[in-house]
Amino acid sequence: MKLKLHIWRQDNAKTAGKMVSYDANHVSPDMSFLEMLDVLNQELITKGEDPVAFDHDCREGICGACSMVINGIPHGPQRATTTCQLHMRSFKDGDEVYIEPWRAEPFPVIKDLAVDRAALDRIIAAGGFISVGTGSPPDGNAIPISKEISDLAMDAAACIGCGACVAACPNGSAMLFTAAKVSHLNLLPQGEPEKDQRVINMVAQMDAEGFGNCTNYAECQAACPKEISIQFIAKMNRDLIRAKLREGNNAGSGKTGGA
Amino acid sequence: MTGVLSFYRTSIGKKVVMAVTGLIGVGFVIGHMLGNLQIYLGAEALNKYAAFLKSTGELLVVVRVVLLTAVILHIIAAVQLTIENRKSRPQRYVKKQHVESTFASRTMRYGGIILLLFIVYHILHFTIGKAPGGPQPFDVHNVYNNVVYGFQNIWVSLFYIVAMLSLGLHMAHGVWSLFQTLGLNNRRFNRLLRNAALGIGTLLFLGNISIPIAVLVGFLKPI
Amino acid sequence: MQLNAKIPAGPLEDKWDQHRFNVKLVNPANKRKYTVLVVGSGLAGASAAASLAELGYNVKCFCFQDSPRRAHSIAAQGGINAAKNYQNDGDSVRRLFYDTIKGGDYRAREGNVYRLAQVSVNIIDQCVAQGVPFAREYGGVMANRSFGGAQVSRTFYARGQTGQQLLIGAYSALERQIGLKKVAMYSRCEMLDIVLVDGKARGIITRDLINGKIERHAGDAVVLATGGYGNVFYLSTNAKGCNVTASYRAYKRGAAFANPCFTQIHPTCIPVAGDHQSKLTLMSESLRNDGRIWVPKKAGDNRAAKDIPESERDYYLERKYPSFGNLSPRDISSRAAKEVCDEGRGVGPGGLGVYLDFSDSIKRLGKNMIAERYGNLFEMYERITGENPYEVPMRIYPAVHYTMGGLWVDYNLMSNVEGLHVLGEANFSDHGANRLGASALMQGLADGYFILPYTIGDYIASAKLAPVSTDHPAFAETEREVTTRLKQLLEINGKRSVDDFHRELGKVMWDYCGMARNDAGLRTALERIPQIREEFWRDLRVPGSGEYFNQELEKAGRVADFLEFAELMCHDALMRTESCGGHFRTESQTEDGEAKRDDENFTFVAAWEYKGVGTKPTMHKEVLEFENVHLSTRSYK
C-alpha cells in the first residue's frame, strides 16, 4: 500500500523545525511502523538525503525508547501498543500519516523525532527507589505481600518510562509517570518507611523540571502503552496530601536525638 | 504557614486548592438551586426564604466572605496552573486527536471565564439590582418579582441559559475531578463518581434554566 | 599470553567463602580516592555501578541509550532462577550448579558456576528489598514456575516482564547514587575505545551521541557490562542497538575473546514475515510450560491447524524427549524445530515455523488461567502477527538470542588485561556452550551485586595504581585513533547504507555459522566476510557529519566492528569440530542426529588473541577441570 507521510524535521533543540512530506510507496501490512520508517530512511540515504532520526531499541514494546506522535496520538491509533509494535495493518492504502516528536518543554528535541527525556530519570533520582544498599536483606519471603497488593504494585511498575503520558497530556504533565513510580513503591511494605519523603521529593522534582499540571483529562491513560490507570494519580495525590499533613506533625523530629 | 505555602507551591497543592474551593462551590450551587426552585411554591414562599437569609446577619457575612474567598482562590490557582501548563507545551502539535478527554474537561477554562462574568452580572442583577437589562422596578423585598421581571428580558434569559450550560459542564467534569485530585477515588468508586458528576451537572443545568424558561413561556407571572 | 583462571583451591562449596576472606580490602576512607568506569547500564552494569558507589568508590557510568533504564536486560520476559527451594521440590545450590553445568554441556568452569548458584539466593532477597514486584501466591509468598532444562520450579517472575522489573530495581539503586552524586551518569554516550596505560586499563574514549564530542575518561579500573553480540546475525532478538564494539575494542587492545562461536538460538520466536524485517521478537520460553509444540506428520501439509486431526500431528519434542518434552533445553528444541522444517514439515509462510498450541491447556485450565499466565504475551503475538493465539496455535521459529561467548575473565571477573573487568553477557564465564532459561538475569545480577564489588577491591588494593590523568599520551593517541576512524567512515561516501551491509553479513553468518555449522560452510564464510568488509570500507555511505546526532554514523562504527568480529566467530567455530550446546557441527552427531561432544579433545575454553585485521587470531587454551561432576552425555530423553 501507499502512504503519504508528514514528518517533523528539526536539526536540533536550537533550530526551528517543520513538517516535511514524503511518499511511502512500498508499505506492507506486516511491517511494523518503525520498519516502514526504516524503508523510508534507506531510500533517503540512497538519494543522499538526511535520514529521519528517531529513538528505538528493543522493538518489542518494552524498552520505552520509541517516541512518536502518530496522527495526533502518542504511539499511534492502537491502544496499549508502542510505536515499535504498531503494525501497518492499522493503516489503509492512501492514508495520510502525521508523525511528530513528543512535545513538552522538559523534552527538548534532539533531532527530528528524537527527544531528550532525561527529566524522567531525574524524577527517579529524586526518590524513585527504596534506600537499601546491596548487602544482606531479609529473606524474600520474610514479609508476606498479598497477591492483590503485589499485583497492584505490578500494574504501576509496568511503566516503561516512554513518556507517552507527557506527550498526550494537553498540559505536558508527567503525573501519570510519576504516579506510577510513586505507587509501585508506596504500595509495597518495603517502600513504606520512605513513603512520605518519596512522594514529596518526586513531585517537587517533577514540578522543577517544568512539567505541567494534571487537569484530569485522562488522555495519558489512553496513550499509555502499558495501560496504567489514572487511579494511580489519585493515589499519589492522596499520598502527597497525607505526607504534607504528617510533615507538619514530624517537623523537628530527629533533630534532638543522637548520642 | 510555611508548610501550607510549600504545599501550595507544588502543582498538586494548587490543584488541591482548586478541588477544595470547587467543593465549596458545588455545595453552594446545589443549595442555591434548591432555594431558587422554591419559586414554584409561589411568591410568598420565595420572598420568605429570601427574608430569612437576610435575617441571618453575621452568618450571611461569613458565608459571603467564604464564598468570595473560594472564588478568588479558585481563580488565582486556575490562572497560575494555566500559565504553567502553557509553558510546558510551548510547541503545539500540528495534528492532535483527543482520545479519552471529554468536551467538559477540555472547556473548563472557557466555561470558568463565562461563569466569572456570569457571577458578576448575577450579583448586579439580583442582589444589588444595578445590572444593565435588569428587572424594573427592582424591589429588595420582592425577590419573586425581581426574578420574573428580570427573566422577561429574553437576552438576559439567554445569557443565563448559556451560563448554566457552562455551569453544568463545569460540574460534570469538576465534581469527579475534585475527588480525583483529593485522592478520594479508586477503581471501585471511579464509575460512580463519574456518573454522579454527570448527574449533578445535568440537574444543575436543568433545574436552573427551568426558571427563565418558565418566565419566558409565561408559566411564572409577576404578582 | 598467560591465562590464569585463579580458581581458589579447596572444596567447591568453600571456594567463594574462602576467596572472599582472602581478598584484600580497600579502606573505607580510601575508596573515594578511586574511580571506576562502568560501561553499560543493564543488570550487570547498573547493579555494579550502584553497589560500587554504595561502597564509596567514585563511579562513572556510561550507556548509549537515552536512559540507563532502557538497557536490553529490560526485554527478558520469563524469569530469574534461584536455588531457594521454596517449593520443596528438591532444589538446592548444588542442583542449580549441576543443572547449569550440564545445561552448558560441560564447557563452563565449576568454580564460577557453583558461586553463581550460591549467590542466586541473595539476588532474590536483594531484589525483593528493592521493591521488585515478583509474582505472589494468595498466601503472600513468592510464586515460582519451571523453565526449560530444569525439573524443579525455581524461576521467579514478575508477570511477563521480569527483566524490566529487575532492571528497574538496579536502575533505581543506580539513580539513588546519581542523586547522591556518587555516580556520574553519561547517557547517550558510547564507548569507542579503551585506554591502556602501562598495560593496565585506565580509561575510555567516548562519543557524546548528541553533539558528537569525543571525550576522555580516566579511572582506576574499567568495567565492561556491554552485553552480547547476537546482532552480528543482523536478525536476532537483541535490541537494535546491541553491539560488540566495547568488547571488540578491548579484544583489539589485548583482551582475550573466549568461545565466540557459542551462540544461543532461542526456540520460541515469532517467524520472519518479510524482507523488511528489522528484528525478531521473542516469545517467552515460559510459554512452553503450557503450550505443546507440533508440526504435521506429512511434509507439505498445508491445511489449517484446526483441520489437522490429532493422529496426523507430530508432537516431536514429546516424542523424542519424553522426560523433558516441551521443556527441553533451548539448543535441543531449536535444532529439533530446524530439523522438522528442513524435512518440509514447517508451517506458515515460507515453511519456517512450528506450532505452539495452547488448546489443550485452555481446555484443562480454562482461558482465564492461561490469560493470567500469558495474557500480555498473547496480546503481543496478536499485535505482531494479526492472529489470535487463543484460537489458532502460535507459530514460532528459532532465532539468535544470546551469546555465551565473550571476553575471557578469571574468577575475579577480570580479563587478561589488568584492571579490565567484564560482567554479564559480555563475559564468557558461566553458561558454557548453552545457557539455561532464566539464568542470564541471574548471572548479570550476581556479577554486579555480589561478585565484582569484592573482587574489584582486591585488584585496586593490590595493583598499586599511580594516579593517571587524561593528559597522558596514551589518551591522546587512543583518541586520535578513534577520531581518525570516524572520519574515515564519513569520508567513504559510497552508495550502500550501513543496514545493507549489516544484512548481508547477517545472512552469511546465519547460513554458515548459525544453527548448524560445518567445515565447508565456515570456510565459505571466512572467504565472504573479508570481501564484505572490503566493500564496506569502499562503498559505504554515511550521510551527514560527526558533529551532531547521527544514528547512521553510530551504526556504521558498530557494523565495522561486527565485520571484523564475525571472522573471529567463524575461526572459533571452525576450530571446534565437536558439537556442544549451541554449537552444532554437522560432522559431529550421533546416528539419530543428536549433538556429539568430544570431551577428549575439546574440554577447554578457547581464548583468542588479536593479531590484526584479517589475520588469523592465536588461540590459547584454558583447560576445564571437572572434579565434582561427571561428564556425561547430555540426555533429555
TrEMBL record, chain A:
PROSITE patterns named among the record's database cross-references: 2FE2S_FER_1, 2FE2S_FER_2, 4FE4S_FER_1, 4FE4S_FER_2
4Fe-4S ferredoxin-type domain ranges (all copies): 150-180
Domain 2Fe-2S ferredoxin-type: 3-103
Any one GO biological process: aerobic respiration
Taxonomic superkingdom: Bacteria
GO molecular function annotation: 2 iron, 2 sulfur cluster binding; electron transfer activity; metal ion binding
A Pfam family it matches: Fer2_3
Keywords of the record: Iron, Iron-sulfur, Metal-binding
Named cofactor requirement(s): [2Fe-2S] cluster; [3Fe-4S] cluster
UniProt family annotation: Belongs to the succinate dehydrogenase/fumarate reductase iron-sulfur protein family.
Protein name per Swiss-Prot or TrEMBL: 4Fe-4S ferredoxin iron-sulfur binding domain protein
Originating species: Herpetosiphon aurantiacus (strain ATCC 23779 / DSM 785 / 114-95)
Species lineage: Bacteria, Bacillati, Chloroflexota, Chloroflexia, Herpetosiphonales
TrEMBL record, chain B:
Compartments where located: Membrane
One Pfam family in the UniProt entry: Sdh_cyt
Transmembrane segments: 16-41, 61-83, 110-128, 154-176, 197-220
Keywords: Heme, Iron, Membrane, Metal-binding, Transmembrane, Transmembrane helix
InterPro entries xref list: Cytochrome_b-558 (IPR011138), SQR/QFR_C/D (IPR034804), SuccDH_FuR_B_TM-su (IPR000701)
Gene3D superfamilies hit by this protein: Fumarate reductase/succinate dehydrogenase, transmembrane subunit
GO cellular component terms, semicolon-separated: membrane
GO molecular function, one term: metal ion binding
Coarse class of the protein's main subcellular location: membrane
UniProt xrefs under NCBIfam families: sdhC_b558_fam
Protein name per the record: Succinate dehydrogenase (Or fumarate reductase) cytochrome b subunit, b558 family
Organism annotation: Herpetosiphon aurantiacus (strain ATCC 23779 / DSM 785 / 114-95)
From TrEMBL, chain C:
FAD-dependent oxidoreductase 2 FAD-binding domain location: 36-441
Protein keywords: Cell membrane, Electron transport, FAD, Flavoprotein, Membrane, Oxidoreductase, Transport
Localization per record: Cell membrane
Signal sequence interval, chain numbering: none
One GO CC term, this protein: plasma membrane
Keyword Lipid metabolism listed: no
UniProt membrane topology term: Peripheral membrane protein
Gene3D superfamilies reported in the protein's UniProt record: FAD/NAD(P)-binding domain (3.50.50.60), Fumarate reductase/succinate dehydrogenase flavoprotein-like, C-terminal domain (1.20.58.100), Succinate dehydrogenase/fumarate reductase flavoprotein, catalytic domain (3.90.700.10)
Domain Fumarate reductase/succinate dehydrogenase flavoprotein-like C-terminal: from-to ranges: 502-636
Keyword Lipid metabolism: no
Residues at the catalytic site: R330
Main location: membrane
Record-listed E.C. numbers: 1.3.5.1
InterPro entries found in the cross-reference section: FAD-dep_OxRdtase_2_FAD-bd, FAD/NAD-bd_sf, Fum_R/Succ_DH_flav-like_C_sf, Fum_Rdtase/Succ_DH_flav-like_C, SdhA/FrdA/AprA, Succ_DH/Fum_Rdt_flav_su, Succ_DH/fumarate_Rdtase_cat_sf
A Pfam short name: FAD_binding_2
Cofactor(s) listed: FAD
Class of enzymatic activity (EC top level): oxidoreductase
Family: Belongs to the FAD-dependent oxidoreductase 2 family. FRD/SDH subfamily.
Protein name stated in the entry: succinate dehydrogenase
Species per Swiss-Prot/TrEMBL record: Herpetosiphon aurantiacus (strain ATCC 23779 / DSM 785 / 114-95)
